[in-house]
């Protein structure tokens, strides 16, 4: 196993200094031999620091810090970033896109650093920023939390070296490794067509890729014709966590999908993409799932007052969680966040951008709009009540089985089942689920093992059952039993 550099993405409100910081790091960390223009279109670049005593002195930055790109990658299951930087203007404090960025980072479940920029300005108020972050459950180390917080001036470069060292420190704690003998695993971050043909920008996370390798992505098979590093130079091999461009594909694969020499890996990834794209996540899906879970909500409203009123009504609703809330219209970054966090979007007195509406339709994300606040609150109360009932049913559940076969004995319909959880007993109430949807309910009236009548069948055992009343049970259905 070898060490690999961390992959870092930068998020924050517009004009808070994301681009300035990236530009400073990129220009200041070029060696004398690298004065040529860096390929901006690759979407990522690697820098070499002069910091010692860590497993690596290199860092890869994703140069696509937009929330849309970050969410789209996450919604496709691409775990590209290892660490995130939350950039905040020390004089402006937490702004709408800052709140949005916090939601994206939390949903990604990766470590992050709060970076307070423009600290050199007279009106900078770092303590106010730290206090404002508490309202969003971001507790920096100085306030007793676990989130590092650093002061910088991206324009002057003040504190940037300390920031790079903090990234390497977190990276060493994550113990990032790769095995050069493993099948390569690279994630696509951008795609385009130019005079060279179809160009795929990617970051490799495991194994190695070489010119001439036969690779797969999004159902395509191709031979690598050329590889380019982030300086636009042709290379023969790329290793983790290198950003690179690959030439050889005829069609543009999906952003977020994987490239590998293993066809099986890419087929599994393709199946996941199809599930994400085709399976809707709406209220019916949520309430019919055979496992208890919360309702995740992205809330958009016309004012702070409206948000406060809605929040007050949800204080005691433990089964409803607000993933992100903000003022303004519903736009496509909200839909991408909904996809990756499995949320529905609720809007109060706000418009829905046409691009967001089209995207929600293709991603099968439910958006519900309200103009009367009590109607919104009443609906949430009703959903919360239904979820609570579902939780009680789940707690009473004592066993599950899967239907293996069905046959008729003495004019009686009998089902062959295998118990997969707990145990089942004669007289149990049964819920029948098909593809996570509740099909019907019945009662267990006969229970046998190898033609011998029994009162109980335990996990791992197979048996024959009869139910009453008759329900449309098919092979592959999941039966859930309760007292």
Can you put this structure into words, describing what you see?
Strands 3-4-2-5-6-7 form a six-stranded mixed β-sheet. The protein has eleven helices and 30 strands. The radius of gyration is 27 Å and the shape is globular. The protein is of the alpha+beta class and 483 residues long.
**Distance N to C terminus:** 51 Å
The backbone outline, from C-alpha atoms, is globular
Total strands:
30
Could you say which structural class the secondary elements and strand pairing correspond to? alpha+beta
Walk across the major sheet and give the strand order. 3-4-2-5-6-7
Q: Which stretches are poorly predicted, pLDDT < 50 over at least 5 residues?
A: 30-40, 275-282
């Amino acid at each position: 196993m070898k060490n690999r550099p961390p992959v870092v993405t930068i998020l924050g409100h517009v004009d808070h200094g994301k681009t300035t910081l990236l530009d400073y790091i990129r220009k200041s960390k070029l060696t004398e031999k690298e004065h040529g223009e860096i390929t901006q279109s690759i979407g990522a670049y690697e820098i070499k620091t002069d910091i010692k005593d860590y497993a690596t002195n290199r860092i890869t930055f994703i140069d696509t810090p937009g929330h849309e790109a970050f969410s789209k990658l996450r919604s496709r299951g691409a775990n590209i970033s290892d660490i995130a930087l939350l950039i905040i203007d020390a004089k402006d404090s937490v702004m709408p896109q800052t709140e949005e960025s916090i939601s994206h980072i939390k949903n990604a479940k990766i470590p992050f650093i709060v970076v307070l920029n423009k600290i050199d300005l007279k009106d900078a108020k770092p303590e106010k920023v730290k206090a404002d972050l508490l309202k969003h459950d971001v507790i920096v180390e100085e306030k007793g939390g676990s989130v590092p917080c650093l002061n910088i001036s991206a324009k002057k470069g003040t504190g940037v070296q300390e920031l790079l060292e903090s990234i390497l420190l977190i990276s060493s704690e994550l113990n990032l490794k790769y095995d050069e003998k493993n099948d390569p695993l690279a994630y696509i971050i951008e795609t385009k067509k130019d005079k060279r043909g179809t160009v795929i920008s990617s970051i490799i996370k495991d194994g190695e890729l070489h010119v001439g390798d036969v690779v797969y992505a999004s159902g395509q098979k191709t031979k690598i014709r050329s590889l380019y590093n982030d300086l636009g130079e042709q290379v023969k091999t790329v290793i983790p966590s290198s950003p690179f461009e690959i030439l050889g594909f005829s069609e543009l694969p999906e952003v977020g999908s994987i490239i590998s020499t293993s066809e099986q890996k890419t087929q599994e990834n393709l199946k996941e993409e199809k599930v994400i794209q085709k399976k809707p996540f709406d209220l019916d899906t949520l309430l019919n799932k055979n496992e208890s879970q919360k309702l995740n909500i992205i809330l958009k409203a016309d004012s702070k007052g409206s948000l406060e009123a809605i929040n007050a009504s949800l204080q005691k609703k433990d089964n409803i969680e607000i993933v992100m809330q903000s003022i303004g219209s519903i736009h496509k970054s909200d839909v991408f966040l909904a996809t990756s966090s499995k949320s529905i979007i609720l809007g109060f007195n706000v418009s829905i951008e046409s691009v967001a509406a089209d995207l929600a339709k293709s991603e099968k994300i439910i958006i519900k709009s309200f103009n009367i606040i009590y109607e919104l609150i009443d609906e949430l109360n009703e959903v919360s009540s239904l979820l609570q009932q579902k939780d009680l049913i789940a707690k009473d559940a004592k066993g599950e089985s899967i239907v293996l076969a069905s046959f008729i004995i003495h004019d009686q319909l009998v089902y062959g089942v295998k118990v997969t959880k707990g145990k089942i007993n004669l007289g149990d109430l049964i819920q029948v689920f098909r593809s996570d949807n509740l099909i019907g309910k019945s009662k267990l009236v006969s229970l046998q093992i190898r033609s011998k009548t029994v009162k109980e069948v335990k996990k791992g055992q197979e048996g024959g059952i009869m139910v009453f009343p008759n329900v449309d049970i098919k092979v592959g259905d999941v039966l859930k039993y309760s007292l």
